[in-house]
Every structure is written in C-alpha cells, then in structure tokens.
Amino acid sequence: MSLLPVAEARQLILDGSSTLPAEIVPLSEAHLRVNADALAAQRTQPPFSSSAMDGYAVRHADLALNKSLTVVGEAPAGHGFKSRLLPHQAVRIFTGAPLPVGADTILIQEDAERAEQAENTEIRPLEIPQPGAYVRAAGLDFTLGDVLIPARQILRSADMALLASMNHAKVCVIRKPRIAVLATGDELAMPGSTIGPDQIVASNNFGIAARISELGGYPVDLGIAKDTEADLLDGLKRAQAEHCDAIITLGGASVGTHDLVQQAFQSAGLQLAFWKIAMRPGKPLMFGTVGNMVFLGFPGNPVSSMVCAELFLAPLMKQWLGLPTTMPFRTARLLEPLPANDQREDYLRAVLQETDNSDALPGVRPLGRQDSSMLANFARADCLIKRPPFAPQTDSGSIVEILPLRH
C-alpha cells in the first residue's frame, strides 16, 4: 500500500464511525461526560425571594433614621417567617432565608442599632438602604424551563453545580467508548517488575490509556503480549469479551520478522483499510476493523504512538462522543529556523513562549532532538509544529501551524 496523507487517513477513520448510544447516569457520575440532549431547568432558582445578607426584613416605607421598628420574629435559612409583616415591624433574617410576606427590603445588621426593651426588641436604622436592597428576587438565576446547557458538551465542574441547582438527579450522556490497549513485544517489561538485560520498561501503554481517559473514554488494559500469534490473538479475544469499541496495539506494526500484529489479526478477520501514512513520527500506523471493533495499530516508539493518539484517536473519540472533530490547529511565530522537510508531514515537539509581536501570536521553539523514543521532550512540549511535505527551509520569524498538546 502507498503512503496516505495524514488528513486523508484521518478522514477514512472518521468516515466509518458515528456517535455512540446514550445512557442515563446519576448526576454524581456525569462529571466530564458529554450530555446527549439540551438540559432545561426543572425548577426556578431561587424558588422564592430571599435575603442576600444577614439583617432585618423590613418595609422600606417604614424606614426613617430616628424611627424604631419592632422585631416580631426571625427567619433562619430553611425556615421562613410564617406571618405577614405589618407596618412598623421587622423580622431578624439570615442569608438565604425567604423574604417574609409584606417585606421588600433588607436592612443589613451593620446598619441597624438594636435595643432590648422590657416587652420587645426594637431596631433603629443607622443608614437608609435603597428600596429592594439585598433582596434576591425569585428566578434571579433562572426559571423553570430555561434551557441552560446545550446538547453535546463536556460537563465541567460548574455544569455539575448548575445541574444540581436545576434539580437534575440523573443525566442522559453519551456512552463512554471502551478502548482496549495492548502493548506488544518480548522486549517490554512492566514498571517495577524484574527487567531483563535486553528489556525496556513499557511506557506508551500507560500514556495511551491516560489519554483515552482524558478524552472521555474507558481504557481497558490488556497488558503486554509476547511476540507470538497466540499471545496477540489472546489479547484480541479479551478485548472482544470486554465489548470494546476499539483495540489499539502498540508495536509490531512495521515490517520486521517479529512484527506479527497484522498477520495475527488478519487470521482473526481483520479488514485492513490502510497501513503506513506519510508522516513523521508515526509512519507505520495501521487502521481497519476486526469484527465489531475498530483496529488501530500504533507504532511501538512511545512518542510515535502519543502523536498518533493526538492526530487519529482524539478525533475518532470526539466523533463517538458527538463532539466537533475539527483539529484544533493554531498559528505561532517560529523562534528559530527549520531545515527543509522531506516527503512526509512532520510533527515536531516544541514549546510556546510569549513574545512582544504586534500580532499577539505566541512564539514557538522546537525542542532539540526529535527522536521518537524521547518521552522527556514530549512531556515538556506544549505543542507540535506541523510541517507540510516538502516544506522549504523556514526562517526564524515565520508563521507556522501548531497543534496544542493537552497532556
């Protein structure tokens, strides 16, 4: 198969997918989920006029600097004053308590002088507030039926508080994509295990699983498969048993004698759509379907697999969740020159820096060596500089396209 352009490969992946079904979850489990439908308030908030401060509920017409009012009761939050406020009366009130019937203003306690009499308590205003001062009107925030959260957005912490205030105990959300992650290779050992002299610590399986979680999915860790067809097929069967929407393999995607992923999965019915794309890092990417699952074969080099996750897995998961799939490319001003590029689309790890340019574009500086095994640089990077195939030498100060990283 010939090398596919990156954008074409991404579109082929998206063309075969659609939004996943919805499910209803308790509000406590809706954080960072995507709501399926627009959400309307199921009550008015606040449901009654209330006090915004501690003080006294009064009738504004009764207030005068040398005139006392008789305190006839109190209204703590959650316990309103049950009688109607009559002329020349006041009710001790606390923040959040319902405004008594007949009252229209709050005289805050700092502006009231209190005097205990033999038979009652009286207050005298030290300052006269404006009519309606410190009263929160019913419906100040929203009213019953107001649509406050549009469909298909990630529910952040502020949305969770709002949903509770709207009286939603449950929320209809898009089902989380279940994505299996299978690292492959005899050379891999788990962190903390006994590591042989010819082995390295597996790392990108943890990075990819974390990115799946960040993107709103549910990662299914299949561990490490040895370089045997039997071990690879066992991983595939476990992914199917877990009802995964996709399986991602890490490594075994190249052309070496021990790169067995394609061969093993094809024996189990893999329909390969493409293999190898015109990009760096990440050229050996594979994509297809096996049974009801999407198959993504990522390269084994850690940075290659993490870059592939940004360019291909992220938009696929957004499509499954009903979110916009447009790649979030931006522009920045290059802070050092770059040599001419070859025939592959290149993605360079880089850091952003503030500049005093009049166009307000950030500055961007590539990070030293770009070897695809170097995770420390990837962890430091703010973005990837996108370089088109056959891009000429690019001078410092030129405007380049960048893909922000969200790790």
Ranges where pLDDT stays below 50 over 5 or more residues in a row are none
The name CATH uses for the topology of the largest domain is: Molybdenum Cofactor Biosythetic Enzyme, Chain A
Structural class: alpha/beta
Strand order within the widest beta sheet: 7-4-6-5-9-8
Overall geometry comes to elongated
Q: What is the class of the largest domain in the CATH system?
A: Alpha Beta
Rg over CA atoms, rounded to whole Å, is: 31 Å
Helix content: 10-25%
Question: Which secondary structure elements does this structure contain, and how are they paired or packed?
Answer:
Layout: H1 6-15, E1 22-26, E2 39-40, E3 50-51, E4 55-58, E5 69-75, E6 89-93, E7 105-108, E8 112-116, E9 121-125, E10 135-136, E11 147-149, H2 157-165, E12 170-174, E13 178-184, E14 188-189, E15 200-201, H3 204-214, E16 218-225, H4 229-241, E17 246-250, H5 261-267, E18 271-275, E19 279-280, E20 286-290, E21 293-298, H6 302-320, E22 330-334, E23 345-353, E24 363-366, H7 375-380, E25 383-387, E26 399-404
Parallel strand pairs: 5-6, 13-16, 13-17, 14-15, 17-21, 19-23, 22-24
Antiparallel strand pairs: 1-12, 2-11, 3-10, 4-6, 4-7, 5-9, 8-9, 18-20, 20-21, 22-26, 23-24, 23-25, 25-26
Describe the 3D structure:
With 407 residues, the chain is α/β, with parallel strands linked by helices. The model has no long low-confidence stretch (mean pLDDT 94). It has four domains: 160 residues, Molybdenum Cofactor Biosythetic Enzyme, Chain A, CATH 3.40.980.10; 57 residues, Molybdopterin biosynthesis moea protein, domain 2 (Alpha-Beta Complex); 87 residues, Molybdopterin biosynthesis moeA protein, domain 3 (Beta Complex); 75 residues, Beta-clip (Beta Barrel). It contains seven helices and 26 strands. Helix 3 packs parallel to helix 6.
